[in-house]
Write a structure and sequence with these properties.
The chain is α/β, with parallel strands linked by helices. It is 33% helix and 28% strand. Helix 5 links the parallel strand 8 and strand 9.
Length: 336
């Protein structure tokens, strides 16, 4: 593996000149944090004394905030409900400088919400004990909503579709957008369970579980991950593919090449993987849009993700943190 920190830093310098559109499901990530005080006498369940409530941007909103944190400029397109969570998420996003919003709000829609309850003792780390998801069937965007994005596609250096299966991003929307993107524009897709249906993206970033699901498997054998990554890239007709593998690193495949494995940046004592995939696609897309190759994108993405997975909840990596992490990764790889 060739790691050229000078070249990588030049790519990072270009991030601030890039404009990226993100389309997908906007998720309200709620966190209720408290101390485990005792067990209930009414049922065999722990009682958590609530201390803090936090709302963070999730889904496509987290992808957008990661691009913003890495100094890119972002236009975020997505649907929100007129409910409490949607109102709070909208307010939170509007406070972020450099983030332009195109929110399709509806009183008939309930904001996708994921509530994580985290608890800890006086001498133990807080850990997630329960997650409650409020999900809805797919509700496609209207033609008018999609045209809002299509009419302005020429101004972007990259476009990311974040498909969580709720309708805001879908293969049919992808096909409409693909016909209108300009030459050289990076078109990246993050999809939970139908990545093979997105034909011809510049970049796809499934995790290992999603890759296994595509082939009807529960898991992929360690020595066959590149084989399946190559098959998935071919099926999807993507130019570049990154399979994220948690503490095992990444598998990367480029059209016309056999592919390679990339180790995780830093240690394997991961705090929280929530939103790590959003960080990966944000960082990798910026790297490719800056003129980098797949190796550059993989290194930048794994270093960015290594910052966020060491924090609680969906987090973002700053450009300065990323520069330091790349330097640390160089020392890790070459033993300097």
């Amino acid at each position: 593996m060739v790691l050229n920190t000078k070249r990588l830093n030049k790519l990072l310098d270009r991030f601030s000149s890039l404009k990226v559109a993100v389309l997908g499901v906007l998720v309200a990530d709620l966190y209720w944090t408290g101390r485990l005080s005792r067990f209930s006498r009414e049922a065999p369940v722990p009682i958590v004394s609530l201390e803090k409530e936090t709302l963070l941007p999730g889904g496509a909103a987290n992808t957008a905030t990661n691009i913003l944190s890495l100094s890119g400029r972002v236009n975020l397109f997505g649907r929100l409900g007129s409910d409490k969570e949607g109102t709070e998420l909208s307010s939170l996003l509007r406070e972020k400088k450099g983030l332009s919003l195109h929110l399709f709000e509806s009183s008939d829609y309930r904001t996708i919400t994921k509530l994580r309850i985290k608890a800890g003792g006086f001498h133990t780390r807080y850990a997630q004990v329960l997650r409650l998801d409020r999900e809805l069937p797919e509700i496609p965007l209207t033609d008018k909503d999609i045209e809002t994005l299509i009419d302005n596609l020429s101004i972007y250096d990259a476009l990311i579709l974040s498909d969580y299966g709720y309708g805001s991003a879908s293969p049919s929307v992808f096909e409409r957008l693909k016909k209108r993107i300009r030459k050289g524009m990076v078109f990246a897709v993050d999809s939970r369970h139908r990545i093979a249906l997105y034909k011809g993206a510049s970049l796809i970033t499934p995790n290992e579980e999603e890759t296994a699901y595509t082939f009807g498997k529960e898991a992929i054998e360690e020595d066959k991950i590149l084989e399946y990554a190559r098959q998935l890239r071919k099926m999807s007709e993507a130019k570049n593919l990154i399979v994220t593998r948690g503490h095992a690193g990444m598998a990367l495949v480029e059209k016309g090449r056999k592919g390679f494995l990339l180790p995780i940046c830093g240690g394997t004592d991961i705090v929280d993987t929530t939103g790590a995939g959003d960080t990966v696609i944000a960082a990798a897309t910026l790297a490719l849009a800056s003129g980098g190759n797949l190796m550059d994108a993989g290194i930048i993405a794994t270093c960015a993700a290594s910052i966020t997975i060491m924090q609680e909840g969906a987090a973002s990596a700053s450009i300065d943190e990323l520069r330091k992490e790349i330097e640390a990764f160089q020392n890790q790889v070459y033993g300097r």
